[in-house]
Design goal:
Blueprint lengths: L19 H11 L14 H16 L10 H20 L13
Helix pairs in contact: 1-2, 1-3
Length: 103
Amino acid sequence: MTKPERYVGIDNEDNCGMTPIGRIIRDAWVFGLIEETETCERWNFAGIDALYDKVNIEWDKYGCLVSNLPPELLEKHQRIHGKAMEDAKAAGWNGGLETDDDG
């Protein structure tokens, strides 16, 4: 099976976007790097990689810890990631799939 040339979009991902790319997109929403309506559907993977780099630069400002986020970003993070987890759990995601192949 060949790898797709374009990203399917967070709304079209398996497990309701509870994947590493989904996390990058949600973090980009938190930091205001892209609009919360941007699903990244049909982005090429170079674009996803560039977004990943931007997200990492933002996380570095806070020591890569949610607890170091200022109150407005903390609220946004809890809202965005909390809703994603609720939606995924309602769709049958159990949280184990992200860690099962950590080897």
